[in-house]
Each structure stands twice: as structure tokens, then as C-alpha cells.
């Protein structure tokens, strides 16, 4: 196993990307792509990395990390063609950022523990925003990406606001807020207010995401787990339906509940 960067392989990858985008000899599909058209693939590859990690499949993780690296190379190549920056500039920028944000490792500052480091990390990021490196206004929420999954962005918005003291004082406060938002949702439903239902449901989800933050769990991970749990149990019900040789439509709600409980192993969870 080579623990050191293989610059030859990286150079080869950059060369492959350049050839794919070559106007005379390149790939028609690759030549048609833009930042906007490639962005969904970048997001998809990041999720596939997360999926390999959740499955603890390190062989697949190696491949998925390669796919994600290719996305970075693709974006950097298009930027180089536009005269904006190249892959080397991307690498230099992240090196500079890591050096700047770890003064306790690469400088003479000290931190007591990981909690103190997290606080210092946010302080440095706030200093960068105020300095205008990304957002001239230096607003607290300015660089929380709009393109994040909504639950993740909700948690990050809450976390960022908390850095200046705008937060619930404790977990119980967030739980009370969830109850309050559910009450407002019930009222909108009772009133037949479709727009209000959508708005209040958003508030419920936002509050739930921040409840997750206070509980120290990631909402996207929680929901992915619930999705997988549902899919696994539903497939078990599906197999029972097929084994019994009956059509879905012939089952009543009570019968399906029995199959569902069986799929859950009789557990109420």
C-alpha cells in the first residue's frame, strides 16, 4: 500500500480529463457539459461515497472516492478552459485553508479539546467572512450553501446562528418548539389552508432538523436509515404477498398490518 501521493496517477488523471475535453479528439458528451450539468453528478457521487461508508465497504469506497475525485478534476478542467483557475489552484486553495484553520497544528496556538477546536474553527470562518474572502457583507449565514439537502442546510443554518448565541438554550427548548410547530400545522390543516400547511410543515421539519443538532445526530443520516429500514421491511412484506399468491388489492389494511409486524419481527420499533 502506497501511503504517499502518486503524482504520476494524478497527472495521468488530469491528462485523461484534458483529452476528454479536447475540441478535436475528445468525447462529444464530455465536451457538451457545463458546471451546471455536471453539478448533479457531483452531488450523486458524494452520496455514493456516503453509501459505501455506511455499508462499511472499503473496496467500493475506493472506487467511489475516485469517482468523486474525477468530478473535482472535471470542474477544474472547465474552469481552466474558461481562464478562471486550474486543478493546482484548487489544491493550493485547500492547502492554504487547512493551514489557516488549524493554527494549533501548524502554528503556535493551543486548544484544549475537540470542542474548543470546533469553536475556534467557526471563529476563523467568521473572520474570513468579515474579511470578505467569500461574502462581502460578512453575514453569519452568508456562506451556508443553498444547494445543500434541505435538512442538512436547516441544521447548518441553526448551527451557524448558534455561534452568535441565537439558539435554544437547551434540548428541551427545541422539543417544545417542535410541539409548537406541530400545533400550528394542525391548525392549518383544520382550516383547509393548503399554503399554510406547506409553510407550517416546513417549520416542523426545520425544528426537527435542529432538534437533531441538539441531540448530536445528523438528520440526513437518520432519514436515510429510516428509508433503508422501510425499504427492507416493505420488501419482506412484498415477498410474503408473492409467496401467498394473492394480489395486493385483495389485502385489507388489517392483513397488511399483520405482514408489516411480521417483517418488523413483531417489534413496535
Fold and architecture overview:
It is a single chain. With 269 residues, this protein is mostly helical. Among the domains are: 7-101, MazG-like (Helix Hairpins); 221-263. The chain is 71% helix and 0% strand. The chain contains twelve helices and no strands. It has helices spanning 7-20, 28-32, 35-54, 58-81, 87-101, 103-106, 114-131, 150-162, 171-190, 194-215, 219-244, 253-263. α8 crosses α10. The radius of gyration is 24 Å and the shape is globular.
Tally of DSSP helical segments: 12
> How much of the residues is beta strand, in percent?
under 5%
Indicate the low-confidence ranges by residue numbers: none
CATH superfamily of the domain at 7-101: MazG-like
CATH architecture field of the domain at 7-101? Orthogonal Bundle
Q: How many DSSP-defined strands?
A: 0
Task: Measure the end-to-end span.
Answer: 43 Å
Shape field: globular
- Overall pLDDT confidence: 91
Q: Based on helices, strands and strand pairing, what is the structural class?
A: mainly alpha
Q: Biggest sheet, in brief?
A: none
SSE arrangement, N to C: HHHHHHHHHHHH
**CATH topology (level 3) name of the domain at 7-101:** Helix Hairpins
What is the name of the CATH class of the domain at 7-101? Mainly Alpha
Helix-residue proportion: over 70%
Radius of gyration: 24 Å
Amino acid at each position: 500500500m502506497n501511503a504517499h501521493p502518486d503524482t504520476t496517477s494524478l497527472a495521468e488523471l488530469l491528462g485523461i480529463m484534458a483529452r476528454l475535453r479536447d475540441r478535436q479528439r475528445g468525447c462529444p458528451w464530455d465536451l457538451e457539459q457545463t458546471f451546471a450539468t455536471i453539478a448533479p453528478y457531483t452531488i450523486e457521487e458524494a452520496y455514493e461515497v456516503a453509501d459505501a461508508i455506511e455499508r462499511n465497504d472499503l473496496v467500493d469506497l475506493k472506487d467511489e472516492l475516485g469517482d468523486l475525485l474525477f468530478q473535482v478534476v472535471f470542474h477544474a478542467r472547465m474552469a481552466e478552459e474558461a481562464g478562471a483557475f486550474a486543478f493546482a489552484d484548487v489544491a493550493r486553495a485547500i492547502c492554504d485553508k487547512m493551514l489557516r484553520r488549524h493554527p494549533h497544528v501548524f502554528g503556535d496556538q493551543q486548544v484544549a479539546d475537540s470542542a474548543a477546536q470546533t469553536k475556534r474553527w467557526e471563529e476563523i470562518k467568521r473572520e474570513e467572512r468579515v474579511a470578505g474572502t467569500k461574502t462581502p457583507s460578512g453575514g453569519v449565514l452568508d456562506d451556508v450553501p443553498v444547494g445543500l439537502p434541505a435538512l442538512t442546510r436547516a441544521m447548518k443554518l441553526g448551527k451557524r446562528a448558534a455561534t452568535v448565541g441565537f439558539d435554544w438554550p437547551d434540548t428541551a427548548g427545541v422539543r417544545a418548539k417542535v410541539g409548537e410547530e406541530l400545533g400550528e400545522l394542525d391548525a392549518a390543516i383544520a382550516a383547509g389552508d393548503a399554503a399554510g400547511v406547506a409553510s407550517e410543515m416546513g417549520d416542523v421539519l426545520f425544528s426537527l432538523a435542529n432538534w437533531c443538532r441538539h441531540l448530536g445526530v445528523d438528520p440526513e443520516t437518520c432519514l436515510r436509515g429510516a428509508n433503508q429500514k422501510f425499504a427492507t421491511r416493505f420488501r419482506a412484506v412484498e415477498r410474503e404477498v408473492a409467496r401467498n399468491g394473492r394480489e395486493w388489492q385483495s389485502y385489507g389494511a388489517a392483513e397488511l398490518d399483520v405482514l408489516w409486524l411480521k417483517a418488523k419481527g413483531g417489534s413496535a420499533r
